[in-house]
Amino acid sequence: MGSEKISVQGKEISIISCREEDYISLTDMVGDMENGLALIEKWLRNKNTIEFLGIWEEINNPNFNSPEFGGIKDQAGLNRFVLSVKQWIHKTGAKGIMAKAGRYGGTFAHKRYAYWTGNPTGEKAGGAECRGDIPDGRAFIHRKSTTIGD
């Protein structure tokens, strides 16, 4: 697993490569925000997020457990619904997001997940080199862009 960093609006964001794919650190994206780590947990509880992640996995992951996803989707958004990244991966076989333990750990999302997640504050990543080739029509940040939103 290789690692590098990009600068996004003056913030260093880690990118790791795994299975010949790039994963962007959501932890770094929210690291300097108050309650930033809780924001990732809240994002994963959101029904719209679960629906997006499930659709992405169904398109990009032939080993995705769609029946298990259906059960999760039915529960998403309810007050009692709690789901960690590790639970999501274990239950569905997801490959678009990962939780990495240790000193350089955190929650990492496939570059297409991460762009959809975007900036949790709702700001746009101005100046990013983007490509609009995601099936839902959204663009994603191309890793060759090393400085975004200066």
What is the number of domains?
A: 1
Number of strands: 8
| Overall SS class | alpha+beta
Number of H/I helices? 6
Please give the largest β-sheet.
6 strands, mixed
The 3D shape can be described as globular
Elements, N to C (H/E): EEEHHHHHEEHEEE
Helix content: 25-40%
Describe what this molecule looks like in 3D.
The chain has 6 helices and 8 strands. The protein has helices at 26-30, 36-45, 47-60, 66-75, 85-92, 111-117; strands at residues 2-8, 11-18, 21-25, 97-100, 106-110, 130-131, 140-141, 147-148. It has one domain. The chain has 150 residues and is of the alpha+beta class. 36% of the residues lie in helices and 23% in strands. Helix 3 (47-60) packs antiparallel against helix 4.
